[in-house]
Every structure is written in C-alpha cells, then in structure tokens.
Amino acid sequence: MSDSTEHDPPSPTEGAADVAALAAGIGAAVAATWFPVTAAVAAAAFTFAIGKFVKRGERILADRLRKGEVALLSAEKHAELVPMAYRFFEAVMQGEYEHTLEVLAAFIVGEVGEESPEAANFSRMAGRLEGISKNELRLIAHIASYVVPSANPRWVSVAAVKGPELVADLRDDGILAEGLNELSRRGFLTPKKDVDFFAKEDGFELSAAFYELVAKAGEAVSEQSGDSGRAH
Question: Domains of the chain, with CATH numbers?
Fold first, then answer.
C-alpha cells in the first residue's frame, strides 16, 4: 500500500466560485490527504475529527472570506488563494487554536487584497503564528494600538509597553518580559542589541513581520485577543 503523502493533494472542488464551496472543497481535499480511505481509522474517530477540525476550519475561512468580500478574483489571485487555503487547513488538521485560525483566515483576506498577493507570505506568517497564545496576541494588539501611535514607535520595552490600557494578565514585569521575548522568537520583534551593538538599554525593534501582520490582519488580532483597541 503506497503512502498517501507520495501523491499530490487532491484538487479542490472544480469551479468553486462561491467562497463557502471553495473552503469546503479544499477542506475536504486536505482531510482526504490526512485520512485516506485506505487508512485504518475508526469511523467514529474519523467523523469526530471531521466535525471538530475540518468543519470548524471551513466555517472560519468562509466567514472571513465573506467579510472581506472575497468572491470574484482574477485568475492570478485565485491561483495564490488556493495554496494559502491548503496551508490554512494544514494548521486546522494539526489542531491549531481557534483564535489563531481566525487571524490566519483574516491574513489570507488581507493577502489576496494586495495587488500582487503571494502564497509564500501567508506560509511564512502561518509559521510565525503557530501555537501563539491569547496573551501574545493581546501584546501584539496592545503594541499596535497604544505604542505604535506614540512619538517613538520603532522601539518597545517592558517600560514602554506598560500602561493602564494593558490587560491585567500582562502587567507583571516578568510576564511582560517573557511575552516580548516570545514575540522576538517568533520574528515579530528584533532585540535592540542585535540592531545596535552599543545599545545600553534592553528593548526590541518592531520587525517588518509585525507591521505586515497588523496591516493585513490587525482587526482580527484585536478581536481574538479581546483587546478593546483596534490593531490596524
């Protein structure tokens, strides 16, 4: 019996112009790749996995595509959307957090809205957001809403980020420092000393990935973090 991973993934439903049909078609295609008919998967477990993961992913992606009024795309943009949707459903099947899936779906809408969208941009962002916590999303939303509009938006630090607008869960200096370090590990921030060898203060520079996320999915970041501000 050949390994299903040796074959190209099935094509989504042909002619799926409607966004719901597109999401459902790609979701079914990815599910078939993960759970091939020949696999020894118990029927009950398979049904549960489809219901819990695939259907949820279809709903999230279709809703975001509708909200973003993504319906009639040029052939070039549609061609970029399909691999982004496949990558999205890979995250779905890996059990990604729902709040992360919402942000990823919003990023897809933002990317296809670009004049020349690239599926690789979404793939890179999906890697950065993998397993991100709500507190980390709250920190991104807070920085985007309250720190970036300030006089010196290039640098952030524990002192610069702290403020009455910050959610209670992040007001502890240790937790806040840990959160900034995690965002740095994900590539959203760059340690100040990596940018300026002679820097005397600890801190981080906002990266291009940070600005890209906020530009393309900032509203979803705020929604999913529960932040009252608007990260866009």
Answer: 4-129 (no CATH), 134-225 (1.10.10)
Q: Got the DSSP string for 12-76? A: PPTT--SHHHHHHHHHHHHHHHHS-TTS---HHHHHHHIIIIIHHHHHHHHHHHHHTT--S--HH
| pLDDT tens-digit series, residues 33-43 | 665 554 555 55
* Selection from 94, 154, 158 nearest residue 126 by Cα: 94
Q: How far apart are CA 26 and CA 102, in angstroms?
A: 17
Q: Could you read off the pLDDT of 85-129 as tens digits, one per residue? A: 989 998 998 889 999 999 999 999 999 999 999 999 999 999 999
Owner of token pair 């006089």: 151
Indicate the helix (H) or strand (E) that contains 142.
Answer: helix 134-142
Give residue 177's Cα distance to chain centre: 23
Say which residue, 164 or 58, is predicted with more confidence: 58
- DSSP readout, 177-203? HHHHHHHHHTTSEEEHHHH-TT--S--
Q: What type of residue is 112? A: V
* 18: helix, strand or coil: coil
Spatial distance between the Cα atoms of 40 and 213, rounded to a whole number of angstroms: 40
Q: What is d(CA 41, CA 57) in angstroms, rounded to the nearest whole number?
A: 21
Q: Which helix (H) or strand (E) holds 205?
A: strand 204-206
* 204-206 and 189-191 beta bridge pairing: antiparallel
Could you give the CA distance from residue 64 to residue 11 in angstroms, rounded to a whole number?
22
- Spatial distance between the Cα atoms of 168 and 175, rounded to a whole number of angstroms: 11
Q: What percent of the chain has pLDDT over 70?
A: 70
